[in-house]
Design goal:
Elements lengths: L11 E6 L3 H11 L5 E4 L6 H5 L19 H4 L26 H13 L5 E2 L4 E7 L2 E6 L4 E9 L5 E2 L11 E2 L14 E5 L3 H10 L5 E6 L6 H4 L11 H7 L5 E13 L2 E8 L6 E6 L1 E4 L3 E2 L13 E2 L4 E2 L13 E3 L17 H20 L6 E2 L4 H14 L1 H5 L4 E6 L7 E7 H6 L6 E8 L26 E8 L2 E7 L35 H16 L4 H6 L1
Parallel strand pairs: 1-2, 1-6, 2-3, 6-18, 8-14, 9-10, 9-14, 10-11
Antiparallel strand pairs: 4-5, 5-6, 7-15, 11-12, 12-13, 16-17, 19-21, 20-21, 20-22, 22-23, 23-24
Protein name: FAD-binding protein
Pfam family, one: Pyr_redox_3
GO molecular function: flavin adenine dinucleotide binding; monooxygenase activity
């Protein structure tokens, strides 16, 4: 899939660095918008997934059987497929709920084939610099290419290591020997408390004498936070072996110093849950599983991004652009700089939708046009069911809760223009500043102390926001939020009438609302809630009033 690249070729519209899922998604989206695109990849397509996770099982779900026929709705439960039509879905590539990384590489290779001969494999970019009205990229083997815009989708390629004396002595998750026989009867310390740390600890249960997992931070579980980067249940078997006293342990401790005494590691740590308490431990192996960081060294000094979140990610604007270098954009897992540990921009099922929005920014910049929008009918009898439909099937709003929003203009010459699934932070800085707008997001409420046992009083109107994911409508005027409504949550996360859904799909027929008396169909209540909200803002939103 390598491409010959003559020196005299015309300037590209967009050069993309990285042929992982983010780079492939960006290329597909931009090709469909008529832009000339090439991808430059340091290894092979899907290089990251050829190496990681080290034990080869993904924790991104691949739910094949959903009862849903709408391709958009299916994506809510398919965390691996890239966006496109027609392109193959990963759900046809593997039946496994938790597929393997090797299966995903095969899927990415097939997706790459749909792009044509635009990928330069084994082409490591070593420099990004300014060049006239655009930019130039250079590779380790002397290749040079000019582009009007650049999308950096290279991921996080360098290990992030904690500031600990002696950290250079330990093994790193990126390249440690995973063979089970090398751990037989060993005492092992795993530094970190994320999924890579527990993935590693989980695989050691059968062979080690003792395994300890250490970090100064307390454990955060994805089922509590709704952030899939926190510890997933699939990686928690190790906790049984700790709490049931099977020689393993999870330590809330900050490693201070790591030393070698012959073949033994001596680790001095401060217990963070017991202030002032120090402990000295001995191990046969120490493995650092503390994540990765972005390599900014390829940027010329004048455009090198500042770093955020402990130096892990490049800083970027609300629409993922490098500030001070218009036309350089970021895509993929590094997009999580904008919603770090809140929503899903660090993962395929989140950033694929971010990239769909990013492609609109890149297209508008390339063509010198306004952002493309959809037109919606503002008549309440049309707008209300449309909002219910979007809340019920949109994968972007569902998988990027509170981060991506539908933004609908209610006044002025742009009335009826809808920016679908765009970053809400960007909207607040731009279009929402003047005029009347309606935004639709999906958001979680407060689950309290135990998300598996939630005390609740279910009200259609006037109660506290429901805990489970639900639609939120907001009315904005000249940059200020002037009205808001939280719709009731729904066990199926589908607020449509059952007659508008797939036969046999969903479970909820009726439920009780404390302020409505007898059990009601959730679809009726949702439409009533949306209609009431639109009626409430009609007086202040000229286009809505006119539509009535």
């Amino acid at each position: 899939m390598n491409v010959e690249m003559p020196e005299n070729k015309d300037q590209l519209d967009v050069a993309i660095i990285g042929a992982g899922p983010a780079g492939l998604q960006a290329a597909y989206s931009l090709q469909g918008r008529g832009l000339t695109v090439e991808i430059f990849e340091r290894g092979a397509v899907g290089e990251f997934f050829r190496n990681f996770p080290r034990h080869r099982n993904l924790i991104s779900i691949n739910k094949v059987h959903t009862g849903l026929s709408d391709p958009e709705a299916q994506l809510r439960y398919d965390w691996n497929s890239l966006l496109g039509d027609p392109v193959p879905r990963f759900t046809t590539h593997s039946p496994k709920y938790f597929p393997t990384a090797d299966e995903y590489v095969g899927y990415l290779e097939g997706f790459a084939d749909t792009l044509g001969d635009i990928i330069h494999a084994n082409c490591k970019i070593t420099r990004i610099g300014r060049d006239g009205d655009g930019y130039v990229i250079e590779s380790a083997d002397g290749l040079s290419r000019r582009a009007r815009q650049i999308i950096v989708a290279s991921g996080v390629t360098l290990p992030w290591l904690p500031d600990v004396e002696g950290i250079d002595l330990v093994e790193i998750y990126n390249d440690f020997d995973t063979s089970p026989e090398s751990f037989i009867n060993k005492r092992v310390l795993v530094l970190g408390k994320g999924n890579s740390a527990f993935e590693t600890a989980e695989k050691l249960i059968e062979t080690t004498q003792a395994t300890h997992v250490m970090s100064p931070n307390k454990l955060k579980f994805a089922w509590n936070t709704h952030f899939v980067g926190h510890l997933r249940a699939v990686n928690t078997n190790f906790l049984d072996t700790y709490q049931l006293k099977s020689q393993n342990a999870v330590l809330d401790a900050r490693p201070i110093k790591i030393e070698k005494d012959g073949d033994t590691f001596v680790v001095t740590a401060e217990m963070t849950a017991a202030s002032g308490h120090e402990i000295v431990l001995t191990y046969d192996r120490v493995i650092c599983c503390t994540g990765w960081r972005f390599d900014a060294s390829i940027f010329d000094d004048e455009i090198r991004p500042d770093m955020a979140h402990m130096g892990k990610f490049p800083k970027m604007s609300a629409n993922w652009e490098l500030e001070g270098a218009p036309g350089i954009w970021f895509a993929g897992t590094i997009m999580q700089c904008r919603d770090f540990k809140k929503t899903m921009s660090g993962f395929v099922h989140g950033f694929r939708h971010n990239i769909d929005a990013l492609a609109r920014f890149v297209e508008a910049r390339a063509k010198g046009t306004e952002l493309p929008v959809q037109q919606v009918d503002l008549a309440p009898e049309t707008l209300a069911p449309m909002l219910v439909e979007r809340a019920s099937i949109s994968a972007a709003l569902f998988l990027q809760p509170g981060f991506l929003a539908d933004v609908i203009c209610l006044s002025g010459p742009q009335a009826g223009a809808c920016h679908a699934a765009m970053p809400l932070d960007w909207a607040k800085e731009t279009v929402l500043r003047e005029g009347d707008y309606l935004t639709l997001t999906l958001e979680f409420g407060d689950f309290g102390e135990n998300p598996l046992h939630v005390n609740r009083s279910h009200n259609a109107f006037g109660g506290a926001p429901d805990p489970f994911i639900h639609p939120v409508l907001r009315h904005w005027r000249d940059g200020q939020e002037v009205a808001m409504m939280h719709l009731s949550d729904h066990l199926d996360a589908d607020w449509r009438d059952r007659g508008d859904r797939d036969a046999g799909a969903g479970t909820v027929l009726r439920m009780t609302y404390a302020d409505k008396g007898a059990p009601r169909a959730p679809s009726d209540v949702a439409l009533e809630q949306v209609t009431a909200f639109l009626a409430g803002l009609a007086a202040g939103a000229p286009a809505i009033a006119a539509a009535e």
